[in-house]
């Protein structure tokens, strides 16, 4: 089973354009939630002293804010260091290895930190026989490692999820043979989710599926299973992590198509924004982050934009396959956190059709007469129109913590750089996993 980017370019037909071939692989993806297990058991290339984090790779010295706090906290949590000072020294020396989630077939919410023992959701794309991974949600608190906070309370919640919730969840999924996600995601969009910032419907549908499995199970209702039910009720963003893993598997299936300008990853570190493009495999195209004052949306009281800071993020993978901000017109309940009004959200989604290759046959928007979400961001179309992908993003505090949700407009420079490269190399040459 394939889990990461292919080392060889995908063979294409002369009758199908590279972009059409790449986006068809996204559209054909059939995601199934199969397990919840420690990252070290399933994530390719993980080692006991590896920490994964969001964003394109950066040297350790470049991390200075909430993402740095989360990485240091993860090292202490994993037992790789006795304290934060020691963790810093080991990360500086390279004895603790810091690598991007995306290089391991994984994605991580906000800071994205993932260690050997942290549980990840496993989503298998049955069409293309590959997997996507995302660390499971930490729970309902606005203070978590995900949001750049490290404390005794964060440690206790991480331990509870690792030792009680995740084993019970994984065992149940294995017992029922997994839960198909495509039908849940389709219904959730019809019920008002965008599958990035809003998971009211998807969370309810998932809980229903899990509860039905628990009722049908011949196994006794243990304390751990009761804790699982409580966790499913309280963890509002739980389904986001399933949607992220499903989107990662689908987008990776589209990587490596020679000549294709379809975006296969979008990601943030606390320093920069970056994208991957199908025709260039694992190569990153990077750009500067906009000032937090430009973020539109709604913040929890008493916070203002002056309190915000970037801490990373890879939930943008959902926009890569047409969800989140790309599907804003499906989620009017998010109007205060997005474009401001339902009418503006409709126009936002309509503009996304100008920079995408296709419409998703399964993921549809009722208000647009069940038109499929705009899918397959084309870097050439972005460069030509000046329209950048619409991204729904969680807002984080400078000192760590969840502050609300915003509409994020990424820098256009990485899209233009990738488009220029494609235009200057009409006959790509492949070296390893990167098409140049």
How would you describe this structure to a colleague?
By secondary structure, the protein is an alpha+beta fold. It has two domains: 18-244, Enterococcus faecalis V583 fold (Alpha-Beta Complex), CATH 3.90.1710.10; 256-424, Alpha-Beta Complex (v583 fold). Helix content is 34%, strand content 20%. The chain has 13 helices and 17 strands. It has helices at 18-27, 39-42, 66-77, 84-93, 152-176, 182-190, 200-216, 223-234, 238-253, 317-320, 342-352, 379-385, 413-424, and strands at residues 31-38, 50-53, 97-100, 106-107, 119-125, 130-135, 179-180, 263-268, 272-277, 285-288, 296-299, 356-365, 371-377, 391-396, 402-408, 430-431, 434-435. Strands 4-6-5-1-7 form a five-stranded mixed β-sheet. Strands 8-9-10 form a three-stranded antiparallel β-sheet. The protein has a three-stranded antiparallel β-sheet with strand order 11-15-14, with no helix packed on it. β14 and β15 (402-408) form a beta hairpin. α3 packs across α4 and α12 crosses α13. The two termini are 26 Å apart.
Q: What's the structural domain tally? A: 2
Helix content: 25-40%
- The topology string of helices and strands comes to HEHEHHEEEEHEHHHHEEEEHHEEHEEHEE
List how many beta strands DSSP finds.
17
Question: What can be said about the biggest beta sheet?
Answer: 5 strands, mixed
Q: Helix/strand/pairing class, anyone?
A: alpha+beta
Radius of gyration: 20 Å
Notable characteristics:
v583 fold, single chain, 20% strand, 2 domains, Enterococcus faecalis V583 fold, 17 strands, three-stranded antiparallel β-sheet
């Amino acid at each position: 089973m394939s889990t990461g980017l292919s080392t060889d370019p995908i063979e294409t037909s002369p009758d199908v354009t590279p972009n059409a071939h790449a986006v068809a692989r996204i559209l054909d993806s059939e995601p199934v939630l199969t397990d919840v297990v420690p990252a070290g058991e399933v994530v390719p290339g993980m080692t006991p002293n590896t920490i994964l984090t969001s964003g394109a790779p950066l040297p350790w010295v470049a991390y200075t804010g909430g993402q740095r706090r989360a990485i240091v906290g993860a090292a202490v949590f994993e037992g790789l260091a006795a304290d934060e000072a020691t963790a810093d020294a080991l990360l500086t020396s390279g004895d603790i290895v810091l690598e991007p989630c995306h290089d391991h077939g994984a994605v991580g919410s906000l800071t994205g930190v993932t260690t050997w023992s942290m549980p990840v959701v496993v989503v298998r794309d049955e069409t293309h026989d590959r997997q996507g991974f995302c660390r499971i949600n930490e729970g309902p608190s606005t203070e978590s490692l995900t949001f750049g906070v490290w404390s005794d309370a964060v440690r206790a919640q991480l331990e509870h999820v690792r030792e009680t919730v995740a084993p019970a969840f994984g065992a149940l999924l294995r017992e029922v043979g997994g839960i198909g996600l495509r039908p849940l995601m389709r219904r959730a969009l019809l019920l008002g989710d965008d599958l990035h910032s809003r998971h009211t419907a998807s969370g309810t549908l998932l809980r229903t599926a899990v509860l039905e499995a628990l009722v049908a199970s011949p196994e006794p209702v243990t304390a751990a299973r009761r804790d699982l039910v409580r966790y499913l009720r309280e963890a509002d963003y739980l389904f986001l992590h399933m949607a992220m893993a499903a989107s990662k598997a689908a987008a990776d299936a589209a990587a490596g198509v020679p000549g294709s300008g379809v975006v296969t990853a979008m990601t943030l570190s606390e320093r920069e924004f970056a994208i991957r493009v199908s025709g260039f495999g694992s190569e990153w195209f990077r750009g500067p982050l906009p000032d937090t004052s430009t973020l539109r949306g709604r913040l929890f009281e008493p916070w203002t934009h002056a309190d915000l800071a970037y801490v990373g993020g890879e939930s943008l993978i959902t926009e890569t396959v047409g969800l989140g901000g790309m599907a804003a017109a499906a989620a009017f309940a998010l109007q205060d956190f997005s474009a401001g009004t339902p009418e503006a959200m409709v126009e936002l989604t309509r503009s996304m059709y100008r920079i995408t290759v296709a419409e998703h046959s399964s993921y549809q928007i009722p208000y647009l007469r069940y038109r499929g979400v705009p899918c397959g961001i084309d870097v050439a179309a972005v460069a030509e129109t000046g329209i950048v992908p619409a991204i729904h993003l969680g807002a984080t505090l400078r000192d760590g913590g969840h502050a609300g949700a915003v509409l994020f407009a990424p820098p256009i420079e990485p899209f233009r750089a990738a488009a220029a490269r494609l235009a200057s190399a009409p006959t790509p040459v492949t070296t390893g996993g990167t098409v140049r």
